[in-house]
Amino acid sequence: MSKKGKILVAMSGGIDSSIAALMLHDQGYEVIGITMKTWDYESSGSSKKETGCCSLDSINDARLLAVNAGFPHYILDIRSEFGTNIIDNFVDEYLAGRTPNPCVLCNTHIKWEALLKRANQLDCEFIATGHYAKIRHENNRYIVSKGLDDSKDQSYVLWGLTQESLKRTIFPLGAYRKSEIKKMAEDSGYIDLANKSESYEICFVPDNDYRAFLKHKVEGLEDKVNGGNFIHTSGAMLGKHKGYPFYTIGQRKGLEIAVGEPLFVTEIIPETNTVMLGSKEDLERQEMTVRNFNLIKYPDLKEPKDFLTKIRYKDAGALASVRQQDDKLKVLFSKKVTGVAPGQSAVFYEGDDLVGGGFIERAII
């Protein structure tokens, strides 16, 4: 029995989770690897060869590494839970005129829940993943902060994790840069792993075409929503569109509307199958409400506090005053921001610390 304890490591077959498992093994933990099968491409209607974390090749890569390193490895089939909680939500959100954030939901409600359940079954005290983020214990709170490598920081997708989950979680890569992780793989003899390409697509939309995915999942969707109106923010009708679920806030390309100036999707109204278009300035918003929020650094935000607020993963962030009001967060930006999209995550930072986050409910001019 290891003095450091038994740890269950989520292994996708990629470089980050693989090196995380090897690092913990070298540090003296009793490592058990686990690869979660969340999806298969046949269910998406794709004819492409499977790639990414759910492919047979990736599962085999994870298993082979574990065998070579001398620790056990298991495969966990969670396709049923994934389909019910992630796929159905993804479709429902687009049909509601919102832009979903499936990776956040998957981390919070699928992967961590599945990991902790299996960790309990295997008597593992800890779980670990290859996320670039850090955890510390301070003021009776488990606090997530950004990873050292700002270009790879993944704290944005972790805002939904509970204190109970964080208490048992280790992020081995938080203090390293991606270049250092690749060097570790090379030095350990895993050249193929170091050179393995990374996928940034949604795992269940392999060709990155969410519109085709929606058409496959919802029978007759195209016929039901085709021919709605493009309406300018001035009130003028500009033409017909292909269906409100096939557009997102801030979209400029693919509108097939020419009026002599750039147009952007500013609002989606599913009740009337309307897509509002306007200038870039028409996308600017000063306030928003956030639902289903989770706070990590503080137990509550009943008094307003200023935080750097991100409204999408690659957003640089903007200063905003955040206050808890009943079951919502009220967010007031110091300056107007562009492209607030209902359904996306609003994530709050204090320095490098992840304060918490939630799903954008409504944007206010």
What does the overall shape look like?
globular
Number of domains: 3
Query: How many strands?
Result: 17
CATH secondary-structure class of the largest domain: Alpha Beta
Order of helices and strands: EHEHEHHEEEHEHHHHEEEEEEEEEE
CATH fold title of the largest domain: Rossmann fold
Strand order of the largest sheet: 12-15-14-13-16-17
Major pleated sheet: 6 strands, antiparallel, barrel
Q: What is the assigned CATH homologous superfamily of the largest domain? A: HUPs
Secondary structure category: alpha/beta
Q: What is the CATH architecture annotation of the largest domain?
A: 3-Layer(aba) Sandwich
The average pLDDT score comes to 93
Q: Beta-sheet strand percentage?
A: 25-35%
* Gyration radius from CA atoms, angstroms: 22 Å
The residue fraction in helices comes out at 25-40%
The separation of the N and C termini measures 59 Å
Characterise this structure.
The chain is globular and about 70 Å long. It is of the alpha/beta class and 365 residues long. The model has no long low-confidence stretch (mean pLDDT 93). The chain is built from 9 helices and 17 strands. A 6-stranded antiparallel barrel has the order 12-15-14-13-16-17. The protein folds into 3 domains: 6-194, HUPs (Rossmann fold, 3-Layer(aba) Sandwich), CATH 3.40.50.620; 220-278, Roll (SH3 type barrels), CATH 2.30.30; 283-364, Translation factors (Elongation Factor Tu (Ef-tu), domain 3). The longest helix has 20 residues, at 102-121.
